[in-house]
Every structure is written in C-alpha cells, then in structure tokens.
Known about the structure:
Largest sheet: none
Shape: elongated
Distance between the termini: 20 Å
Amino acid sequence: MDKRPSTPQAYAELVQQALFEVEELRAAVEYDMDSMGMALDFLDELEAGVRQLRDSMRDGSYQFGDRDLPFMKIVEQQDDRILPFKYLLRMINATHRQGLAVDEDE
C-alpha cells in the first residue's frame, strides 16, 4: 500500500484506519504494560493529532499543506516495533503534503 489515495473519501478512510490502529495499540499497551508501556509516552498526543485531522476533515476546515502534519514528529521518533502502522501515518502525511494521487492515464 504505497500509493496515495485518489479521492477524498479514500483519504478520510486512511485517517479513520489510523485512528482504529491507535485504539488497537492502546488496547495492546493496556494488556501488556511490561513490553509495550513505553508507547504510553506518545499515544495520547498521537491520538489527539489524528483525531484533530479527522475532525477538520469532517467540519470542512481541513487544508492540504506543504508541511508535515504535527503528529509526524512523534511518529518518526518511534521504532516500527512500537508503532507498527507507521507506514499508514506516513502515507497520510504524504497525501497531506502532496495532495491526492491523480492517475494521468485515466
């Protein structure tokens, strides 16, 4: 899944999927505090950032931009083993920065 979404609906679905993944990670952390407890350090802030993005899409205030989304600082500091859906957040950020993918052949 390396291709940016081509429709606003597909982009919104990626953001919703990221929220689901954050919630799943929170459940894993709560279940296994010994090995996953370090995720608590960033989970609340990450979740708030993704929710803010989703909410701005819902209320119509969202705008694509040429800067990273605010939560990407958190994302890039985490190991893939702690944040296994990092690729998804990177794709959301790439779409934010570069816009929706438009296939010229269609």
